[in-house]
Write a structure and sequence with these properties.
Helix content is about 35%, strand content about 15%. It has helices at about 10-15, 25-30, 60, 80-90, 130-145, 170-175, 230-235, 265-275, 290-310, 320-335, 355-360, 390-400, 405-415, 450-465, 470-480, 485-510, 515-540, 555-570; strands at about 50-55, 110-115, 115-120, 195-200, 235, 245-250, 255-260, 275-280, 285-290, 315-320, 345-350, 355, 365-375, 425, 430-435, 440-445. By secondary structure, it is an alpha/beta fold.
């Protein structure tokens, strides 16, 4: 290709992985499918129309094809060149430069070239909360739990493939690149959840970079541990180094997407428990030590990718549970990177508190939409008062059985924050409030309560405690098993329902919350206010006489007022 049209010139001249784009590829990308689903039209050409008819693809006709999609099944395959076939079978010398299809002399031959079109998930790059992003990024956050699916997974020699479904590589490099709609983002998934996709020229898809040792020196297997391949470029899996952090990254000309995996292993649970506060060196304030270690582990991986492929795109980051907490630290760390001006958009699902109030204040410019399911206990931890120092509370728990008094003191000191700032959520909370409709159908309404006691109530229900010091290990076990914390069971269906609700609201010019739904939620808020007032009365009975009369200053009274403000907002 010798033209000057973007994005082809950018892809051909970029610093890393310059693509050998041909004129044929450009023309194939500007051609549309006759059928909307991209399937071939099986033709029956008569003798007077042509002697021979072959269905070909761009990769059949060019020398370098690692960046092109795999060949789709076809009825009319072109014949293979005899020398190429013998070389592939080991009966002749290699023929690396022999490309093309065989044409016979004096025969009228028709070649039908398959269009080079791809599908990509639609995303909004605007700051304001978007129901489309709510659903799409819920799928991406869930996909982050899958393997990359590359075969071979490491030390490839000449080519790679992505056959495993579901996997990150299969989703982007096989299905979307081949103009097929994927629906599975979880290995145990039964219900189909299709992303909303737009058709684009192949070069504008979410890219999985090519693997071609002949064309790219960095792909050569002789490099050993330094060898680059798609899994190493797009997929971060820190299992061998101890943090077990996992994430994937991809891009097109407008968006770079980063999805971080949540709790999935015993190592993840240990990191969740480690709620000791440490300095957030890349910004201000203090962060949860376990989450901060995971952020540090993947920071260089993300920066290397951005250094090679960032050209001013909106960086969209998402994550579920633990992944949401790590995503927050990553987003703020990138936002504060000097001389880069990264423009970050963050969506998190069921994320715990990741840092203290100083961090939250310092990150106020970061655009963060924090999605919370009302019955999900994870967003309620770690509690604001916590500073879980493992090297204190673990010995305390051990001593507790043999010597309760000093053991209990050590255990308490290991959990409670005595100095510094409290843990605090960051971002604008979007809250799924469950409702039971008169016909027995369970649904939910997404709204912005601005009141953390609503989500904290879920933690108390999960623990079945009135108390002040939850057992973190037991808590995490419950959280991981909680259906209300699940993406496939809980968050994705609620996000899809919300997107449909928004669409129907636009069609009918109605309101997002119906009068009947308001009544149901109002009843729930009234119940919570009543419970708080009853709790305040009980505490007041134990209050010294000289301290009575100031009840309106206590935290319970303030929370009652916040619930009233939440109702007014709804």
């Amino acid at each position: 290709y010798s033209g000057s049209e973007k994005p082809y010139t950018d892809l051909m001249t970029r610093l890393a992985y310059k693509l050998p784009i041909t004129e044929l590829q450009v023309r194939a990308e500007q051609t549309r499918f006759l059928r909307a689903n991209g399937k071939r039209v099986e033709r029956s050409l008569s003798k007077n129309q042509t002697d021979l008819f072959y269905q070909v693809e761009v990769r059949d006709l060019v020398r370098y094809a690692a960046h092109l999609p795999r060949i789709v099944s076809r009825t009319h395959r072109p014949p293979r060149h005899a020398l190429k076939m013998m070389a592939d079978l080991g009966f002749g010398p290699p023929q690396p430069t022999l490309v093309g299809v065989v044409l016979f002399p004096n025969r009228h031959t028709v070649l039908e070239v398959r269009p080079l079109r791809a599908l990509r998930p639609m995303l909004s790059i605007e700051d304001q909360f978007c129901a489309l992003n709510l659903y799409q990024l819920a799928l991406m956050s869930t996909l982050s739990y899958c393997d990359f699916g590359q075969e071979p997974p490491a030390k490839p020699i000449d080519q790679v493939s992505f056959q495993r479904d579901p996997s990150v590589g299969h989703f982007f490099a096989d299905r979307l690149s081949g103009y097929q709609e994927p629906w599975k983002v979880d290995a145990k998934q039964v219900q189909h959840f299709y992303p909303l996709l737009e058709e684009v020229p192949y070069s504008l898809r979410f890219e999985i970079l090519p693997f071609d040792p002949e064309l790219y020196q960095q792909n050569r297997s002789e490099l050993g541990e330094e060898q680059e391949h798609p899994a190493r470029l797009h997929f971060f899996d820190d299992e061998k180094d101890g943090t077990d952090t996992q994430a994937f990254i991809s891009h097109h000309d407008e968006v770079i997407i980063i999805a971080v995996r949540g709790t999935a292993s015993g190592v993840d649970i240990l990191r969740d428990v480690n709620a000791h506060q440490v300095n957030f060196i890349d910004g201000v304030g203090k962060a949860h030590e376990g989450f901060y270690q995971a952020y540090q582990a993947m920071h260089d991986f993300v920066r290397r990718y951005l250094d090679q492929f960032y050209t001013g795109q909106r960086i969209v980051i998402c994550g579920h549970s633990l992944g949401g907490a790590i995503a927050l630290l990553l987003a703020e760390g990138l936002r504060r990177t000097e001389d880069t001006h990264y423009n970050i958009l963050l969506y998190t699902y069921g994320a715990p508190r990741a840092a203290d109030s100083e961090f939250t204040d310092g990150a106020s410019a970061l655009v963060h939409h924090r999605i919370v399911n009302h019955s999900d206990p994870v967003p309620s931890v770690p509690a604001p008062w916590m500073n879980t120092t493992a090297n204190i509370w673990i010995p305390g728990a051990v001593v507790l059985f043999s010597n309760p008094a000093p053991g209990g003191l050590l255990f308490a000191l290991g959990l409670v924050r005595l100095t510094g700032n409290p843990y605090q959520h960051h971002g604008a909370q979007q809250h799924f409030m469950p409702i039971l409709l008169p016909d027995g159908t369970r649904s939910s309404v997404l709204w912005t309560p601005g009141c953390e006691s609503i989500e904290d109530a879920a933690c108390k229900r999960a623990l079945r405690l009135n108390g002040d010091m939850p057992d973190r290990a037991n808590l995490i076990k419950q959280l991981v098993q909680s259906a209300h914390h699940s993406m496939v069971v809980s968050y994705i269906p609620a996000a899809w329902a919300t997107l449909r609700r928004w669409q129907q609201t636009l069609d009918t010019h109605g309101t997002l919350v119906t009068a009947r739904e308001f009544e149901l939620i109002d009843e729930a808020l009234f119940t919570m206010q009543h419970q708080l007032r009853e709790q305040r009365k009980k505490l007041d009975l134990h209050r010294p006489a000289n301290q009575r009369g100031y009840e309106h200053h206590d935290p319970l009274s303030q929370e009652v007022d916040r619930l009233k403000d939440s109702r007014d907002r709804l």
